[in-house]
Amino acid sequence: MSTAIRISDPLANKARIQSRVFHRSLSGQIEYWAKMGEILEENPDLSFAFVQEIMVGREQVNAGDLTPYQFNHED
C-alpha cells in the first residue's frame, strides 16, 4: 500500500537529480534515503559507506551472486 506525503520542493528537486544519477524512480530515491536514515539512526556507530556495502551484499545474496571466501590457511 502506498501513502501520499508532501515534501518540500527543494527536497523533491534533490531527490529527482539523485534518482536520475542512480537510475531510481523519484519515490525509490526517497525510500532509499528514508531506509538509510532509519538504519543509520538505529546504528550510529556505522558509517554510511559501511551500511551501503551491507545492503549491496544482502542484494547479492538474494540474487544468488555469491563467491565463497577462501581463507589463507598455512599448514
Automatic annotation (TrEMBL):
<dbReference type="InterPro" id="IPR021831">
    <property type="entry name" value="ParD-like"/>
</dbReference>
<protein>
    <recommendedName>
        <fullName>ParD-like antitoxin of type II bacterial toxin-antitoxin system</fullName>
    </recommendedName>
</protein>
<dbReference type="Pfam" id="PF11903">
    <property type="entry name" value="ParD_like"/>
</dbReference>
